[in-house]
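Anyone have tokens for 2-oxoadipate dioxygenase/decarboxylase? Sequence:
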Amino acid sequence: MSRISQWELRAAFAARLSEMYGREVPAYTTLVDVSREVNEDVLRARGASAERLGSISRVTAERHGAIRVGTPRELRHVARVFAALGMHPVGFYDLREAAASAVPVISTAFRPVDREELARNPFRVFTSLLTPADPRFFDAGLRSRLEAFLADRELFPPELLTLADRATAERELPQQEAERFLHLAVRAFELSAEPVDKAWYETLERISAVAADIGGVRSTHINHLTPRVLDIDELYRRMTDRGIEMIDTIQGPPAWQGPDVLLRQTSFRALAESRAMRTPDGSVISGALRVRFGEVEARGIALTREGRALYDELLGHIDERTAENPSQPRDEIARAVWERHMPGSEHALAAKGLAHFTYHLRPDRPRDGRRPPAGVGELLRQGWVRAEPIVYEDFLPRSAAGIFQSNLSGRGTRHHDQQGTAYDADWLSGAIGRDVLDPFALYERQQHESLASVARELGLTGALS
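Reply: yep, here.
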């Protein structure tokens, strides 16, 4: 009997989830189609350079999903399902602090971490956890009601979790069990037809639309699936031309002539979806909820800790100048700040230690007998090595919060006089029951391994830097 490996399970799950979400949200299918058209046009126009940050087959197939859960127990169950797919929790994101609106969640992303696994299928899921213990959003009475409601539901059937644990232990499943696992996993993220308690949902919605989406229903669902595109500005124009309402901005770094870094994201606006609503008298009526949207992303180069600090500093400059010049478009201000302060080439990013690359010996390197330099910058400048950019595989809390906010119907309620409950990566690791990995450490390891290989091949002693 044939057996299905974890990466094949991951690829199949991503594809089936995409098919399911396309049936539930037809505008998502339009988004995927337009993304594919843009990618094909960019490839024709730019040739091989279009695949600098990933092959066209990877870029076109790439997706990330987003889900929301209510309790650490539910998060542990999610982790078991994704572990079966070779996906690990990476990064800690606090959207409570990144959002101006009330977004009472902390998040991580489940994804592959090894370079080979990412190349096979890089599917990732941004996963948010509600924070009922934060008094800025929930008073003691509402917290108690919310926690009781969440404790009384089951998002993932025991059979799914048992199959997930087997796939994790064996790193594969027999074909029949794999098919059953995929069926149950996709079904767990479908939109439920069960009527929503209208009064309870609206109680939470007054606090936060995100809180209502998590804690106001008895199931979870995919909030968005995100294709990857090579020219997000062109995609934004084409979607608008098709009459699909997009959010006001593209989140993340500005469009400019230099290297793409980190992540740029946008989406079409959340659609009003018909949902059955149960009223206080027990009758069921037809209502509409606006919680799901279609996001799209363009990925750039992973920045080092120093590069990320520069990125955050530049965002601060952009905010200041936008406040000082309200009549000037923010994207113009952002582009000017970027062109003044961000290195304009991959070589400059590498030489200044601002971005992550893997390094490889050049076949046409000097062969005149001279000893190679010991520094990466000089090895690059003198033509001994070439630098291949490492794609940013993670997320930006401010951008994620910006997408959330742009698709909310209201700002919600936040009591600024209350002290917020503290959460960090260590807390989240304990809640999940497995380590939340540091994305910077993952990129650093990949870069260091390539430098160690270069040093060995050149006969250099000591580490390259």
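The chain is about 45% helix and 20% strand.
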